[in-house]
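Thread amino acids onto this structure.
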């Protein structure tokens, strides 16, 4: 175990364990990233024993992060599990003497089991831009209704009804909605989830937000996004799923058939992703970040003295495709500030016998590629490390899928479930696909056709040397263009 895999431009904690992003909020020019964090104790395995705190970092631009002291510590009510943070602009909570302040809403988890169940919802508040926090004296603000799973509250202000709304996981594969005037007193409003979407196992980390539909003036839809731990549909694992529908301040209604499963990310390694609250209206974006890992092997990934990283921050949009309205994801524009020197190729014919190579290219890259699959059965890009290691970011023409294959990507034997090929549907309009790929030492994020399909995967190359190969199998493909940008540290 070494520190060699620490990402150059993705967020990691200085040491110890991280998982879910929490409490994402923007205030006074700072993006706040709280996160599930188990500090590294002397002579202990990373993340053991599992007693989460809220770690804390801030950024002016989503790229350069400053680490701050742990924000929330376990207390008599239990460990600090996932949740959200809002700006209480009108001091509806009464915590701030009429001025705005930050209120964090989170799950207290106590395995000993408070009355009715181990998980309750609690508050903490800050009057100094999140630097210090006070636990609400009358926690919990929402008691457990008598179930094992009752966690991960996402709170937001619903302007039409002039109330706060909380969406919280309830009993494995449902969510409940609660409403409040003051963030302290909550009333049950409705429930959603029975026989809806994927139900392989637990739902976690819900998020609910409204987005405009690109190119359709005045049209908006609500997106209910959540994580689905170990759910499966056919042979593909659904790590996150989302629903498109309507929300009236109390009730969410799914606009698709109940058995429709929409995957937020087609890879293995994007989980618990949630969005920032309180971005100024002039910004106009909905920005999401996720935990770049998978619970199947998260505790044994070969890194130290840290374990766990975040995805790139992504801007979310809605676009009407042939199959219906779908979620689109793009890396935030600020990522472009990391670009350094670049190399460009264009107009190459790629065959099984004639691929395009670039040797010793580095391990922190942005790659933008346009391909015509032509007669090829498969084409794409390989990240090649040493003589025997390669990670393929490819397009299967017959299946019309974008995939990442990490079967031979380097270190894969730390968990039997780690090696494999994962991906999802991607069409080739007019016979062309576009790929935008981010490589950062131990991870690959691939965005197909401007974010219509996204695949996120961890990799652990054993060789320090890496090159790129544009390849085609079973026929001829045309490389329209390839731009490779070397990315520097923030």
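Threaded sequence (490 positions):
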């Amino acid at each position: 175990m070494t520190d060699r895999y620490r990402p150059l431009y993705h967020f990691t904690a200085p040491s110890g364990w991280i998982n879910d992003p929490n409490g994402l909020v923007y205030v006074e020019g700072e993006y706040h990233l709280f996160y599930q964090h188990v500090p590294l104790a002397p002579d202990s395995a990373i993340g053991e024993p599992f007693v989460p705190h809220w770690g804390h970092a801030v950024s002016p631009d989503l790229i350069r992060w400053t680490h701050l002291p742990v924000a929330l510590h376990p207390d008599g009510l239990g460990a600090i599990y996932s949740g959200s943070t809002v700006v209480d602009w009108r001091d509806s909570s009464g915590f701030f003497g009429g001025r705005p302040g930050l209120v964090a809403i989170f799950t207290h988890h106590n395995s000993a089991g408070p009355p009715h169940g181990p998980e309750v919802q609690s508050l903490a508040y800050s009057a100094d831009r999140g630097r210090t926090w006070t636990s609400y004296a009358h926690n919990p603000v929402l008691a457990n209704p008598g179930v094992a799973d009752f966690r991960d509250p996402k709170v937001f202000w619903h302007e039409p009804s002039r109330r706060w709304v909380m969406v919280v996981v309830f009993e494995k594969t449902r969510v409940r909605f609660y409403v409040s005037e003051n963030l302290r007193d909550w009333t049950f409003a409705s429930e959603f989830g029975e026989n809806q979407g994927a139900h392989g196992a637990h739902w976690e980390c819900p998020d609910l937000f409204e987005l405009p539909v690109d190119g359709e003036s005045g049209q908006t839809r609500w997106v209910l996004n959540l994580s689905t731990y170990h759910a499966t549909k056919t042979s593909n694992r659904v790590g996150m799923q989302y629903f498109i529908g309507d929300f009236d301040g109390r009730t969410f209604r799914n606009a698709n058939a109940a058995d429709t499963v929409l995957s937020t990310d087609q890879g293995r390694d994007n989980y618990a992703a949630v969005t920032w609250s309180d971005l100024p209206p002039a910004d106009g974006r909905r920005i999401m970040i996720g935990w770049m890992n998978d619970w199947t092997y998260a505790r044994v990934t070969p890194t130290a003295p840290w374990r766990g990283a975040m995805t790139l921050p992504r801007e979310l949009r809605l676009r009407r495709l042939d199959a219906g309205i779908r979620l689109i994801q793009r890396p935030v524009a600020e990522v472009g500030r990391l670009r350094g020197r670049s190399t460009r190729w264009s107009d190459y014919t790629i065959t099984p016998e004639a691929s395009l190579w670039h040797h010793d290219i580095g391990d922190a890259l942005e790659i933008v590629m346009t391909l015509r699959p032509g007669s090829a059965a498969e084409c794409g890009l390989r990240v090649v490390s040493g003589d025997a290691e390669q990670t393929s970011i490819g397009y299967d023409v017959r299946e019309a899928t974008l995939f990442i294959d990490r079967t031979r990507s380097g270190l894969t034997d730390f968990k039997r479930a780690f090696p494999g090929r994962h991906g999802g549907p991607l069409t080739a309009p007019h016979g062309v696909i576009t790929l935008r790929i981010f490589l950062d030492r131990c991870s690959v994020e691939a965005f197909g056709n401007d974010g219509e399909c996204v695949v996120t995967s961890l990799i652990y190359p054993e060789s320090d040397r890496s090159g790129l190969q544009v390849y085609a199998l079973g026929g001829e493909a045309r490389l329209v263009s390839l731009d490779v940008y070397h990315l520097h540290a923030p």
